[in-house]
Request: fold
Amino acid sequence: MQIDYVELSSADFAATRKFYESAFGWSFEAWGDDYLAFSGAGLNGGFRKATEAPPRGGALVILYADDVQAAERAVEQAGGTITERHDFPGGRRFHFLDPTGNELAVWTKVA
Reply:
């Protein structure tokens, strides 16, 4: 088995779409009023309609970037909030909250 699809939640599809299009260039397709699918992220997924911010501390979606500093700037410029930064053997990453409260991370290899 392999992971085929990632689903997150969002209480504000307009803010979600604007953030991920701006920060990462993802594409979106609305499926009615309660679902917003995305592509262009390496693995397709979607956002289901929610009434409140998602809880933190569960599964973490981690994106890869060749330039983690440029990714961090793009996240901040698009309206995301950086919550953590980590250096570890062979890499570096940061965690962020999107405008509707989803926590994701971005990492890069460091020689």
About this structure: The beta strands are 6-10, 27-30, 35-39, 45-49, 61-64, 81-88, 91-97, 103-109.
